[in-house]
Each structure stands twice: as structure tokens, then as C-alpha cells.
Amino acid sequence: MLPPRRLAAAAAAALMLAAACTGDDGPNERDAPAAPTPAPTPTGTFAPDVFSEDDQVLAVAINEPSTLDPLRLQDPGSFMVARQLYEGLTRWDPVEERAVPAIAEGWNTSDGGRTWRFRLREGTTFHSGDIVTAEDFVFAFDRIAQKANASELAYTLERVEGFDAVNRTGKSRHLSGLRAIDDLTLRIRLTEPYNDLPALLTHPALVPLSKEALDATDSFVNTPVGNGPFKMAEAWAPGQPVVLQSFVGYLDSPEIDGIRFLPYADAASSWIQFVRGELHAAEVPVGQVQAAAEAFGDEAFKPLLAGYYYGFNLRSKQLKNRRLRVAINRAIDRQEIATDVFKDTLTPARGIVPDGMPGFSEDTCAQLCSHAPGAAKRLVRSIPRKERAIVVEYTSGEPHDQVAKAVRDDLRAVGLKVTLKDYNFSRYLRRLQKGDQSVYRLGWIAEYPVADVFLWSLFSSRSPDNHSGFRNRRVDALLNRAHAEESDDLRLQRYVQAERLILAQAPIVPIGSFTSYWALQPEVGGVAFDTMGGFDAAGVTLEE
What we know:
Shape: globular
CATH superfamily of the domain at 303-516: Dipeptide-binding Protein, Domain 3
Number of helices: 16
Distance between the termini: 57 Å
CATH architecture of the domain at 303-516: Roll
Largest sheet: 7 strands, mixed
Structural class: alpha+beta
Number of strands: 19
């Protein structure tokens, strides 16, 4: 089994997301405009010499980025900026819901999905003017995988041959499964078939890097050299806006001249500027969702591939009792949690795979996830009294305290004795990694839109992120068949079948999934938000 790598990153991201979905409501709804207010091009005080008065510059509110280096991407702000600075082999089309060619003009596979060849477009360049070659992808992927770099995104390459030698033991610095056949041909050989590879390669970290630019730049974090539709207009410093200019050497020149990504502590802070017309795009605070929809429309409200759940440690003799697990599931009122705690920014769970994911099925959790306290009480009565006392563990802070108390009240109402235990974040992660937890809370976020991110990661017997200890040979076999299935439709069917099998054993309590709420000023066009909470700005337009 591989060591856990994604846990800390996923848990931290879910913690941030959940807090945002229960945070400050922002200005009172009466302060929201009754009708759209056109946004003037923000003048600001940043980079005054970069753009002329006639230039079209998009002003976007984001969370403070922690980095612009693909090696360290973790937070939403960093991901948002990186998507404009860099371009990978493939990109995700949110309309067609599939991976489409980007720097790669096409690809083919053999060995049932083990060996892949990507043909790069001729003449694509970095912002420095250097030609992008297959070797630049090899260099960048090796950099992410190398043990010494300790990237929390290394898991994205764990299926590539040679990963263990590079990431676990550190005996090699090069992934043996990567090879630049020539300047325009990249071969990727995997340890086993994986026909979702083109979708995985849409991850914003899996992009080419120029070794020369990386070595020559004093601080790649502040002045990265990418190959995407926008380039750095000036050096970035923490706490300051990220200012980008359109890159004329990109595949298709952007419609706008630049972007200012303006950092804010939270959506409530940026919303004030947005309703004044000082921003073109901003996230909507929890309490402003209805007012924002009425004033600006809901076209930028999209399901987010992020789930909130409780899991069972199946290594525990008590929690091996399926009747207890089903009783807990049916006792919990998910709609009440969604409304009272998350102000309806959480959608009650209908399965493990969240709404918006290709392969989402509306009824995989129809019975298990339905609130049925009567049925739960009957199940509890069939359980020996000494097994009716459970411990529910979670990370300290809101909204997790509120959710845990709601869960406790629901479980007590059906005859269970519940003790809540909260831990600070680092201690909680250590307990999960050691397998010391009982009933535990966690969140999961997909950084690329494949159902496998939830199903294999959380429930495969070989996954390092399977914290419940769930083991099922039929599920493992179905997931392996899905990986080897070349047909997209049949692969999605396999994922749905696997999800049904998993939920039949009730190793998890799905609570809900989130929605991304953005508002756009009326003069902004061409924005297509995806289910990862971002958008590509290359096609954005600003009407006069």
C-alpha cells in the first residue's frame, strides 16, 4: 500500500470550504443592488503602468494565493491563478464534460490503457519565448514526484511507472514511465490501465516547466514563467494582487488585455466592492445568494466536486456491525444540517459521488441517505445495549462543531449514546493516519473531474486514503474494470455499479456536497465556470 499523501491537502481544503459556506453573510441583503450595476474597469492602485486606459482588464476577487508554483498548489486562489498562467496536455471542457486537447493536439493509447502517446502542438511557447517540448513535461512531472520536493500533489503521478523509486525511496529522480520520444511526442507508461488519464492530466499542476527559466528566476514563486493564455505583468508578493497580461503567443490570443486577481480575506469583504461595481467577478457570501441571483443571475452557480461526510473505522469490532452503520445513516437529518448549519449552500447527499461529477447518479443513496428515524430506532433495538454507545470525532471549529452536535442529537433521538470528541487539525490527522479514530468526519475534494477520485481513493483496498479500512473484492474488481474500460459510457456505468456496492455496506455517512456561488457583472461574457470552482479566462469578453 502506498503511504497517504492526499489526506492533509484534502482535509485542509475541505476545512476551508466548509468554513466559507457558513461564514459572514456580508452586507445586509438590503444593501445588494435591486438591479445589476455595471462595473467600471477598476483603476486601483496596482500596476498603474502596465495597462492603458483603453485596455480591457478583468478584476476578479480571490482568496489570497499561497503560491504560483505548480509544485505547491493547494488553495483555491492559487489554483485560479495557475489556470491562467499554465496550460497542460489537456484541459477540461465544462460544457462537453470531457478532457479536450490543449498543448497536446491528440493522443492514443495501447496495452488496454497502460501506454499513452501524446502529440504536442508544434510551435507552442513559454512566456519567455522558448519552445515547449515533451522534455519540459518530463522535467515538470519528475519535479512533482521527487521525494526531496515533498509535493502534496505527487499522488497525481502515482500510477506512472517508477513512481515508488522516485517518491517513496528516493532512489531515482526520474519517472521511468515518462519518455520524450522526440520534441513533440511524450510517452507515458502506467503500472496498470487507467483510461481516465486524459481527465487526470487536466489537473492545474500537471503542466510543462522550462528548466532554464526555473533556474534563472530568483523566485519562481513570485515571477513564474508559464505557457498559458496570460503571463505575469509584474512580480507578485503575498498580500498584493496578481497582475497578468494577455500572452500573444498562446494558442488562441485572449479576448481581454489582462486580469487583476485581487486578494480578499473572505467573500463578505469582496462583496462590498462587487456591489459597488468595483469588481467584475466575486464569490457570493452565504447570506447574499438569493439577492445575488435576482440582481446578477445564477449562471455562475455551479455544483462543486466536494463532499462532506462521516466515516466508520471498520477495524473496530463495534463498527463492523452493518445494522449500526445503517441506523446511524438513517437517523441523520441531512436536510436540517444543510439548512440550519450551511444555510442551504450544502446539498443533502444523494450518494458518494457529488452532483456535477460525470457518472453522478441521483439514486445510489436513495434509501440509506433518507431520514427515517423510525427505521433507525428499530435497527438500534436489535443491537446489544453495550454496543449502542459511540464516539464521534471531528476537527475543532465551525461549522464542524455545529454539524457534530446536530448528528449527536439525531443519534440520541433513536436510542444511541453519543460522545463527541474534537481535536485540533494536526492531531486529528495523526489519528486518521494511525487508524485510531472511531466515527470520524472528513471532507473530500476532486481536483480533476473523475468519479474515481472519490471511489478508488476512499474505498479501494489498495488506496492509502482509505481511512475506513473498507475491503471488498467485488468493488476492487469493478474499479479495476472501470480503469481498463475504453468506452467513457461503460466506464461511468462501472463507477455507478461500484458506488452502489459500496453504499450497500454503509461504510460511510454521506452528508452533502457543496455549490460554488459566483456573481458576474453584466458586461462580462464568455465565462464558463466548471465544477472545480474555477474558469479559464482566455475566452472572457468585456463589453464597452
